[in-house]
Specification:
InterPro entries (chain B): 2Fe-2S-bd_N (IPR042204), BFD-like_2Fe2S-bd_dom_sf (IPR041854), FAD/NAD-bd_sf (IPR036188), FAD/NAD-binding_dom (IPR023753), GcvT/YgfZ/DmdA (IPR028896), GcvT/YgfZ_C (IPR029043), GcvT_C (IPR013977), GCVT_N (IPR006222)
Radius of gyration of chain C: 15 Å
CATH class of the largest domain in chain B: Alpha Beta
Number of helices of chain C: 1
Shape of chain C: elongated
CATH topology of chain C: Folate-binding fold
Number of domains of chain C: 1
CATH topology of the largest domain in chain B: FAD/NAD(P)-binding domain
Helix content of chain C: 10-25%
Structural class of chain C: mainly beta
Organism (chain B): Methylophaga muralis
Strand order of the largest sheet of chain C: 3-4-5-6
Oligomer: heterotrimer
CATH class of chain C: Alpha Beta
Domain SoxA A3 (chain B): 494-576
CATH architecture of chain C: 2-Layer Sandwich
CATH superfamily of the largest domain in chain B: FAD/NAD(P)-binding domain
Chains: A alpha+beta (413), B alpha+beta (964), C mainly beta (88)
Domain FAD/NAD(P)-binding (chain B): 166-446
CATH superfamily of chain C: Folate-binding superfamily
Distance between the termini of chain B: 96 Å
Keywords (chain B): Aminotransferase, Oxidoreductase, Transferase
Number of strands of chain B: 49
Strand content of chain C: 35-45%
Strand content of chain B: 25-35%
Chain lengths: 413, 964, 88
């Protein structure tokens, strides 16, 4: 048992301080206001303070920190994208994640499991090879494997998928990992707080003031704040915020659902994804199977659960693992996913001076948390987006320069 | 040592059906009707499991489907809930999550080192240095988890039922049953469900009044209505939009769609929190009552009742009646009780201590049960025990009645706004969604007669909602002393006063979590994991809210609740997944493919032969495909194309409609001709292509690709509405069969069965005619997709197999072979044709695919045109080309999606590649930079092994054939 | 599963329907600027509220318009486009 825990055993008083201060009333003015106290917003605040010494920063969270998609995603971290710009961006995120527990001194349970994207059709196999080739080119360890290698990593998987969708192979992605999602938000919150950033929970932005094309302040239910720089990092609430500044974006909101089973002893070490069966699954450190499926088919700004989702998902998971018939689903939930037409995020500056956007994460954006924080901090500090996120600029849609991630999605299954 | 009581009039067990089973290797007897827990308890076995984190011994807590520390495995199934699962003869049960058995569990040392494991300990250690984390992670993962999953557990398809009713009632207690009767009286249909084996709710264990006869009356009334369907042993798993509620039984799920919903699901008894409140022998008062009245089992021999309401006094009398030596009733309330039960108890020599608490329970030697309770005076406002005045009583059990929490999960899921009601100290509905009603304890109504009335009231409201006109019913709101204590928590310096039994969370964990800043209910839940175990907080959430309220010095309603999500109880994957349908479509010729060795592959919903391996064939897949392709090149081949989308477009505006939707021109197209019809999306991306055959001035026959047929038809339908043109569509995809006969001998074969002059002059490529083949009405096209000479035939599906066979027969002498989709892919590659969706992707525009001849930019409008005008101004980024590998190429073929590399950078990718036995060359299609588009340009492909392979751009492989 | 009112076939479960996106009016391609056209193609009014949407009843092949609140998922009315009476 690590010695670090000894202090808890020998102290009369619980020796741990607050993770972050209980900020109640915002000041009249801040250098930067970050809307959204999820992983992305908190990470941006942390890196603003740490990398650029900008500490006069307020993070405004309408609910509680990490309560949005940060606390709802299925915690998968990977970089096996299709386009070089996507792979590089997410690979940079993985690299930060690998050392993040140490940096934030919080055990994020960053667990390297390896990630298999299963292919059940020839066309899916082609896409896997496409991704593998691009990944390899950029220096990310991904390659196409056959059924034998999949079986070796997960002997419980029925390679024929109950005869319904035989697995032809997979894209294996060695860096694929899972982590404790709440911890990421809390760790960044603590880190930012220690550097002087103020975090306000239960503080909702109701208006953003723009004068002469420049941001000048935000009205909240907790007072007015004047500022010249506002970052919106609100995922499923993005259209509500962009509406406040009259900014057009392609973002639409669809619910994305997930569920967990009862805990069981560990047996699934890898992360498995099947595009054809619309399943992704991993086993958490608590022993629950954490499972998700595709996006809900129509726009909705709500986190309601649907029975169709869990019926479809469980039907397909039993194709893959027939023995799970009597394992029980404990809980299902949903998050609001902010979608773009090309399945890549929208990051960087906008036509409104001082209004920065971090949005369009599609599937909750957890895996991008560190790098989006870091690159948005740089964008705000220098008022210029770093190269790493240039292809994610909002103007790409008007320029008909969508990112290539759209290419794979339409030939994927 | 048997704890089985003499026959109780209310008991659910069948004493004439005894049997035995084993638990942890020990033979145990039971009766039909016992649950696993009741049978074990009857046999004096009280350690039913070990807790999740500290591995503490646990027994019966609720007997109400949230004893999640009593989880068993029978070697086949795991995480079986012993408190409610019917025990069966010869079961061989063991507790889950132990090392070396439930008694000697070697993991129980964790309880001793618990100070080393503060709340959230796993966030605080094990991560430095980084390289050691995998070691610790492995330990932690193995320690976590409950049962072992059985990899041989069979997949048992559980068909789903659907049911519809006017009113669905959740809970068959007195409120629910009364509601059901009131609804049925008005002639409406009712489904009423209850998770217990028998209906009755608290009437089956709470004998405060004449419960037995009341229940008999209610049930016989229910039975008299044919419109009431009572389902027991079934729980409502969740609430979904428009009153859809899945009802889960062991046999499967019934999806009930109701017009209105009455939630009469009662309340969960809540534990008071004191040190060692989790030991086997310490249980809810209602659990003790269930043991006695349902299973005729004595809860313990000698014990006390700790209470914060009058239910505890009733429990004490029940225990006395069951022969338990009740030493004391300890009432946490300052004023105690004014109930006549107090006098009754005192007359039976039971000591009653008001303003007192159980300060702690002393564990027996191996911590497997209760040996003593310590009683102290208690200040209920300060929640402090006066430890200077201790009374110690030796005993083996404690019954606890501190209050209730509403079973409101479905109400929350339906969107009910709840408020905290101080008179009952619980959350009650404040604003119910349309068509949803609540009655009984879940609605904050506790008096038995009022619960009955509340059921009738809810029924009246539901009836009025459904358009009946019935008189409203008045119900008295709760008055006087609350049934729930405002803060049933006793602090103890040594802790182990549990709030959440699933997750082993003690009072200090909440205090410490708040100290660390996790001081709102959602953060606290996430940091402490309270309510995240399998019982989903049924016995813990309310106390957690109270503790947090006290920490924050806020009223409970300011703390609020966490969100309740499905499922009410954990629900098996097999139940939810059901039978798992995988629909497929077969063409009219499917049977022939199977008989002739067709290797079938899914193409969307359709099944198509990839290639044929007739019985006895020694060929590899590759050889079989090549042989089929070679037949087309040298003799003739035939493919079943029935899966193509087929749409008839007719009406005066048919041509105008096609001009609007497709990129080409159709207005001046002659009858008897077809043209390629390419579809773009609004962004100018290529989506699909097919042929548009003009059969009359006002009638076209359109084909689409197999995978896009439904999407294209759907899109065209919408365009018909938007355009307002006078045109109609008919989807003939499933109605028509189609086949293509291709190759040099194809005309000779086909001409035996048709009178059409098939010569290239009389019937050139681009021609279409309505004629007969083998005396069957059909559409005949001369095409050039897979071969210079080919004919596509579209005909009624019913005649598909007949005509196929006729052609096969006619072609036998010419060497006609059937070919599959694999050969088709090679053949079209040899012709230099790209496939949309295969060679193009979701961003490819027609300029990149050299499809300019198909685009009539000078038309007034077509979908995607305006975007193309924008794209045309921009430089081309990439372009599709045909290529050939060098003639001396040897080794492994590059694969599709291998990258084109230029100066070490990605410059494109291979979209198609194959060895052509006909051309004896490797040919393909690739995306390359625009500067490489010229015939003769050289570029390099990086294969899987990382080697660079040289390739040359060619106009078309057909040129190779000519020069060869 | 939700229920939806098809203007032709009445109330049917959601599984029989397919979502066709927001109902949007196309700008005049001849007079609009490139930027206006690009905005029409790519941008959406993502903010929540009552929206006019295309829905398709798959078994019968019926396109219609639904007015739906994208927060509550309540459909206030459905009708054919262009609005016209359906013969019963």
């Amino acid at each position: 048992m690590p010695l670090r825990l000894l202090k808890y055993a020998i102290s009369r008083e619980h020796p741990a301080p607050r993770f972050f201060r209980d900020c109640v009333e915002p000041k009249k003015t801040y250098d930067v206001v970050i809307i959204g106290g999820g992983g992305h917003g908190l990470a941006a605040a942390y890196y603003l303070a740490k990398d650029y010494g900008i500490t006069n920063v307020a993070v405004l969270e309408k609910g509680y920190i990490g309560g949005g998609n940060t606390g709802r995603n299925t915690t998968i971290i990977r970089s096996n994208y299709l386009t070089p710009e996507g792979v590089k961006f997410y690979d940079a995120s993985v690299k930060i994640y690998e050392g993040l527990s140490e940096e934030l001194d919080l055990n994020l349970f960053y667990s390297n499991r390896g990630h298999f994207t299963l292919a059940h059709t020839e066309s899916a196999m082609r896409t896997m090879r496409w991704r593998a080739e691009v990944n390899k080119h950029v220096g990310v360890e991904s390659y196409v494997v056959g059924p034998e290698e999949i079986s070796k990593a997960c002997p419980q998987l029925d390679i024929s998928c109950s005869g319904q969708a035989p697995i032809l192979g997979a894209l294996y992605h060695a860096p694929g990992s899972v982590a404790r999602h709440d911890g990421v938000a809390w760790g960044y919150a603590r880190g930012a707080d220690q550097l002087g950033v103020e975090i306000f929970q239960n503080t909702e932005v109701t208006r953003i003031d723009v004068k002469g094309g420049k941001v000048c302040g935000v009205q909240t239910n907790n007072g007015y704040i004047s500022t010249n720089k506002v970052l919106s990092a609100v995922a499923g609430f993005t259209p509500r915020i962009t509406q406040m500044v009259d900014l057009q974006t392609p973002i639409v909101i669809h619910p994305l659902q997930a569920c967990v089973t009862e805990p069981m002893k560990p047996w699934l070490d890898t992360i498995l994804v099947s595009g054809s069966l619309h399943v992704y699954v991993s086993q958490s450190s608590r022993g629950e199977l954490v499972m998700g499926s595709s996006l809900d088919p129509y726009e909705m700004h709500s986190t309601r659960s649907s029975l169709d989702f869990v019926e479809g998902l469980t039907s397909h998971i039993t194709d893959m693992f027939p023995f799970l018939s009597n394992v029980k689903v404990v809980r299902q939930w949903a998050g609001m996913a902010d979608l773009t037409p090309d399945f890549a995020p929208i990051m960087g500056k906008t036509p409104i001076e001082g209004f920065y956007l971090d949005a369009g994460w599609g599937t909750w954006g957890f895996k991008a948390t560190p790098i989006s924080g870091k690159t948005m901090a740089e964008t705000i500090a220098k008022d210029m987006a770093p190269d790493l996120i240039k292809s994610f600029r909002l103007s790409r849609f008007e320029d008909y320069e969508l990112t290539g991630e759209k290419g794979a999605a339409s030939v994927g299954h | 040592m048997s704890s089985r009581l003499t026959t109780q009039s209310t008991e659910w067990i069948q004493r004439d059906k005894p049997f035995s089973f084993s638990y942890e290797g020990q033979q145990v007897t039971a009766f039909e009707g016992d649950t696993i827990s009741s049978a074990l308890w009857a046999n004096g076995i009280k350690v039913l499991g070990r807790s999740f984190k500290y591995h503490r011994a646990r027994g019966i807590l609720t007997l109400a489907n949230h004893d999640v520390n009593a989880l068993m495995t029978d070697g086949i199934d795991t995480n079986i809930r012993a408190d409610v699962w019917p025990v069966q003869a010869d079961m061989q049960l063991t507790a889950v999550n132990t090392t070396g058995g439930v008694i000697k569990d070697r993991s129980q040392f964790i309880d001793k080192i618990s100070p080393l494991l503060p709340v959230g300990f796993y966030y605080k250690a094990f991560h430095t240095p980084r390289r050691f984390f995998p070691f610790w992670e492995d330990k932690i993962r193995k320690a976590a988890g409950l049962g072992e999953v059985n990899f041989n557990y069979p997949r048992i398809p559980k068909p789903k039922q659907h049911a519809h009713c006017d009113v669905l009632i959740i809970g068959a207690g007195i409120a629910g049953l009364s509601a059901a009767i009131s609804v049925a009286e008005q002639g409406l249909s009712v489904i009423i469900v209850d998770e217990n084996a028998k209906a009755g709710g608290s009437l089956t264990y709470d004998m405060a009044t004449d419960s037995v006869s009341q229940l008999t009356t209610l049930l016989s009334a229910v039975e008299s209505y044919s419109k009431i369907r009572l389902i027991t042993n079934a729980y409502a798993a969740g609430y979904y939009a428009d009153h859809l509620v899945p009802i889960v039984e062991t046999t499967g799920i019934t999806k009930v769609r109701a017009k209105a919903l009455i939630v009469a699901s009662g309340a969960f008894e809540q534990p008071p929190v004191f040190r060692n409140n989790d030991l086997p022998g310490v249980m809810m008062g209602s659990a003790a009552q269930r043991l006695i009245y349902r299973y005729a089992v004595k809860p313990f021999d000698k014990g006390v009742v700790v209470t914060a309401n009058d239910y505890g006094y009733r429990t004490a009398l029940d225990l006395l009646a069951a022969g338990v030596d009740v030493l004391a009733v300890i009432d946490m309330r300052r004023e105690g009780s004014s109930s006549p039960l107090v006098t009754e108890l005192k007359s039976k020599q039971v000591a009653v201590h008001k303003a007192s608490c159980v300060y702690e329970v002393i564990a027996s030697k191996q911590k497997l049960g209760v040996s003593e309770v310590v009683i102290c005076p208690y200040d209920e406002l300060m929640a402090e025990a006066d430890t200077k005045n201790k009374i110690r009583l030796k005993c083996d059990g404690v019954a606890m009645s501190a209050g209730w929490a509403p079973a409101a999960a479905l109400l929350y899921q339906a969107g009910t706004k709840m408020r905290f009601d101080n008179t009952v100290q619980q959350f009650v509905p404040a604003e119910l969604p349309e068509g949803v009603f609540a009655a009984g304890k879940v609605n904050g109504i506790f008096e038995l007669d009022q619960r009955q009335l509340d059921g009738q009231r809810a029924a009246a409201e539901a009836l009025n909602y459904l358009g009946k006109s019935v008189a409203t019913v008045e119900v008295k709101q709760h008055q006087g002393i609350s049934p729930s204590h405002a803060y049933p928590v006793v602090n103890h310096p040594k802790g182990k006063n549990f709030v959440d039994f699933d997750e082993d969370i003690q009072v200090k964990d909440f205090i410490n979590a708040a100290k660390e800043g996790f001081d709102n209910i959602e953060l606290m839940k996430r940091f402490t994991t309270v309510g995240m175990g399998p019982s989903q907080g049924k016995h813990s959430n309310m106390n957690a809210i109270r503790i947090l309220a006290r920490i924050r010095d806020l009223p409970v309603e300011k703390i609020g609740t966490t969100t309740a999500r499905p499922f009410f109880h954990p629900t098996p994957i097999g139940h939810l997944g059901g039978r798992g349908f995988h629909p497929h479509r077969y063409t009219a010729i499917h049977e022939w493919h199977i008989e002739n060795g067709g290797i079938m592959t899914a193409a969307g919903l359709w099944m198509r032969p990839s290639y044929y391996l007739p019985a006895g064939s020694q060929l590899t897949a590759q050889q079989a495909m090549q042989q089929e392709a070679m037949a087309v090149r040298t003799k003739a081949g035939m493919i079943d194309n029935s899966t193509l989308g087929k749409i008839e477009v007719y009406g005066p505006d048919a041509a105008a409609f096609l001009e609007r939707v497709y990129t080409g021109k159709f207005a001046k197209q002659k009858v008897g001709q077809y043209r390629i019809a390419m579809l773009l999306d609004e962004a100018g991306v290529m989506v699909d292509d097919g042929l548009a055959c003009r059969l009359a001035e006002d009638r076209f026959y359109l084909t689409t690709s197999t995978t896009n047929s439904a999407m294209v038809y759907r899109q065209l339908q919408r365009e018909v509405q938007i355009s307002g043109l006078s045109v109609s569509l008919a989807n003939l995809t499933g109605v028509k069969a189609a086949m293509t006969i291709a190759g040099p001998a194809s005309a000779d074969i086909l001409s035996q069965l048709t009178t059409v002059d098939l010569s290239a002059n009389a019937f050139p490529t681009g021609s279409v005619v309505e004629t007969k083949v083998a005396d069957v009405e059909c559409l005949l096209l001369r095409v050039a997709f897979v071969a210079e000479q080919a004919f596509e035939i579209h005909l009624p599906a019913a005649a598909g197999l007949y005509v196929w066979n006729q052609l096969m027969q006619a072609g036998a002498l010419f060497g006609l072979m059937a070919y599959g989709t694999d050969a088709q892919r090679l053949l079209r590659l040899e012709m230099g044709h790209h496939l949309i969706g295969h060679d193009t992707d979701g961003l490819t525009n027609p300029f990149e695919a050299h499809a300019e001849p198909l685009i009539a930019m000078d038309k007034a409008f077509f979908t995607g045109q305006r975007s193309l005008k924008i794209i045309a101004k921009k430089p081309l980024n990439k372009t599709l080309v045909n290529f050939v590998l060098d003639s001396d190429f040897a080794g492994d073929l590059p694969n599709e999606c291998n990258l084109v590399i230029d100066n070490g950078d990605i410059a494109g990718r291979i979209t198609s590649i194959a060895y052509s036995p006909y051309l004896k060359r490797v040919i393909g299609i690739a995306f390359v930079p625009p500067e490489k588009r010229q015939t003769g340009s050289r570029f390099e492909i990086r294969n899987d092994a990382g080697d660079l392979i040289a390739a040359t751009v060619i106009q078309s492989p057909t040129e190779l054939a000519k020069s060869a | 599963m939700k229920l939806l009112q098809c203007p032709v076939n009445g109330i049917r479960p959601l599984s029989e329907f397919s979502y066709g996106g927001e109902f949007r009016t196309m700008p005049d391609p001849d007079s609009c600027t490139d930027q206006q056209w690009a905005a029409y193609v790519h941008y959406r009014s993502g903010a929540p509220g009552y929206k006019k949407e295309w829905w398709y009843h798959m078994p019968s092949g019926t396109w219609f318009i639904a007015e739906r609140n994208t927060i509550t998922d309540k459909v206030s009315r459905t009708y054919l486009f262009p609005k016209r009476e359906v013969a019963v």
